[in-house]
Amino acid sequence: MIHVGTCGWEYRDWRGVLYPSGVPQRLWLEEYARHFSSVENDGAFYRLPSPATFDSWRERTPEEFVMALKASRFLTHIKRLKDPQEPVHRMLQAARGLGDRLGPVLLQLPPTLTVTPERLDACLTCFPPSVRVAVEPRHSSWWTEEIHALLTHHGAALCWSDQAGRPINPLWRTADWGYLRLHQGTARPFPSYGRAALRSWVDRIGDTSGDFHVYFNNDAGGAAVRNAAAFADLAAKAGLSVSRPRLQPGTDAE
Predict the structure, then answer these.
(1) What's the DSSP call for residue 7?
(2) pLDDT digits over 157-203, tens only?
(3) Does an H or E element contain 108, and which?
(4) pTM reported for the whole predicted model
(5) Distances (CA, A) of 224 to 46, 94, 119, 204
């Protein structure tokens, strides 16, 4: 199953694209979940929500909804993966409120963090087997056989990343599931992705098996909403099993 969504949902310029003008911001998650069955919660990166907030997100979304969680920058950018036990435990304790809505946890590493296998190993060891973890390194020193083997050992997915319609890291398969983030396309209106770029990612995923989480981070002007819908449509037409959005690609919300 391919789970398709966006990185976050609280964007004011999505009014008229996803959110009708009469829907208040406090109901945007419910409206989002009417159209998409998955989201990456990147707000947790800036501030870890309270357990009560996670509880409310579970109650406000349907049973099949999946919420991926971007790990706190305290763990990845401030601690830089040092002494991970406490921040990982605190994050998972708070996120327990999501119940079966909890999807993968994303560890996005800072671009200045060079390869540190020992820190990554210690961090991944803190996660129970029931929690899927994706890792998004952003320094070229991480592309080693040692890191490939380490991710595979833990069953952690290397996060595939796109910039300007092209992969910016190796397309390793280190787990029986996958994770893809699309940051910025080159089509108009900027920063949209064109259909050729989207189709290239459908083809890459089509060559793999297992669950795949696909999230669009090009939020400006609602590009992520339109691209996520178009991507899901292309994946379905390619015969892939996809959590298909209820929003038609290239159209505004009704």
Answers:
(1) B
(2) 999 999 999 999 999 999 999 999 999 999 999 999 999 999 999 99
(3) strand 102-108
(4) 0.94
(5) 20, 28, 33, 20
